[in-house]
Design goal:
Distance between the termini: 33 Å
Largest sheet: 13 strands, mixed
Bound molecules: zinc ion
Number of helices: 7
Number of strands: 19
């Protein structure tokens, strides 16, 4: 067994994080070999080993140990290295948290895929998506090993988890919380996020959020904006949302803000480019727009024939994600339309695995394009 795996397994196992304590035994917190006193904060690497492979686990860890007892909230970001809005949300939340005014503990891992973040890549160096390898294995690929170390020595000791994302390549998302509404504690976190919309779904197998929930840690995702840019209008609602959750958990003074019931979406589907209609795509509707079935919300023009095809809303609802203007091929996801109303507990169409279809073609009866129902895919950035 290599030295760095041994370090992860033996050294970290010996110093697990503490859980919420009673006032009498509320003391220093041990996290990956560091001790953080009540009323103080610290920033340090997850593992300081300098070996070639262990540098992938040289992940920044920020911990604020509250002066008073309370739960442990974990905030993770940058699991997809190009989704930088979330990294800034996590940074601002931590910087804005005064440990002397805090009850409980804030553990922030703002740059989980630090390697990918530095190179602007969604993936790890081995081209794997870290967010499909949880809860991980100490004997698998490097993605499995990283997932296992994080899951075993941080995530399993969190009382709640907020994982921060954006849409994936060349797409953008309205601020939205993804949650398994069947998990009551997770749903309560989502409802107290203060802003954005809630979309019901369990998330893909192997994702940090889904596996955390299945391991008993209530967890939600906040998704906002697009990769590779900082967008203040998507960052600030995230910061406010995490702070509202901290108020809900009793970690900060003040009242949390509830998301209204009519901002909870029971499901969502993607409109895609049908077969033979590739070209240059230009959206004519924006995030947050209410659209009706059959409405023209963009177009695709074939650059070689100049034939223009309208892109029509395949159903009525609200645009919660969309592709930016770009060349597109058949099957490419263009508009993510949410269906309003209070979430039905078993609905999870918004979280179907990449590439899976949940319905056949839908003839909207207008124009040349027949948009199709599809569930979300990697486009959503989860
Ligand atoms: Zn993501």
């Amino acid at each position: 067994m290599s030295r760095w795996i041994w370090l992860v397994m033996m050294w970290l196992i010996s110093v697990p994080m503490g859980l919420a304590a009673t006032p009498a035994d509320w003391g220093p917190l041990e996290v990956v070999g560091r001790s953080i006193e009540p009323g103080s904060s610290a920033r340090f690497p997850f593992i300081p080993d300098t070996t070639y492979q262990a540098s992938l686990l040289n992940i920044p860890v920020f911990v604020a140990r509250g002066a008073r007892p309370g739960p442990t909230l974990c905030v993770t970001a940058g699991i997809h290295g190009d989704e930088i809005n979330g990294v800034e949300v996590a940074r601002r939340v931590f910087v804005g948290t005064d440990p002397k005014a805090l009850a409980g503990t804030l553990v922030t891992l703002p740059m989980l895929n630090a390697d990918g973040f530095r190179s602007g890549s969604r993936y790890l160096s081995d081209r794997r998506d870290l967010n499909r390898y949880f809860p991980g294995s100490s004997r698998g690929s490097v993605a499995s090993i990283i997932a296992d170390a994080l899951f075993t020595h941080v995530v399993s000791d969190c009382d709640a988890l907020v994982d921060l994302h954006t849409a994936s390549f060349h797409r953008t998302n309205a601020p939205q919380i993804r949650v398994d509404v069947d998990d009551a504690r997770s749903f309560e976190l989502a409802r107290h996020f203060s802003g954005g919309i809630i979309i019901a779904g369990k998330g893909p197998r192997g994702s940090l959020r889904r596996e955390a929930v299945e391991a008993g840690v209530p967890a939600i995702i906040y998704e906002a904006g697009e990769p590779m840019r900082f967008e203040p209008d998507k960052i600030e609602p995230g910061v406010e949302g995490v702070r509202s959750v901290m108020r809900f958990l009793g970690m900060l003074q003040g009242k949390p803000v509830l998301i209204p019931a009519d901002r909870i979406f029971r499901g969502s589907t993607w409109s895609r480019v049908p077969a033979g209609k590739a070209g240059f795509f230009f959206p004519e509707a924006d995030l947050g727009d209410r659209v009706t079935r059959g409405q023209k919300i963009g177009y695709v023009v074939d650059p070689l024939t100049d034939v223009l095809t309208p892109a029509l809303a395949h159903r009525s609802g609200e645009i919660i994600g969309l592709a930016v203007a770009q060349p597109v091929l058949s099957g490419y996801a263009l508009f993510h339309i949410g269906e309003g109303g209070t979430a039905a507990p078993t609905e999870e169409r918004s979280d179907v695995e990449p590439g899976e279809d949940v319905a056949g073609p839908v003839d909207v009866g207008v124009g040349e394009i027949q948009m199709r129902d599809h569930a979300q895919d990697a486009a959503t950035g989860m």
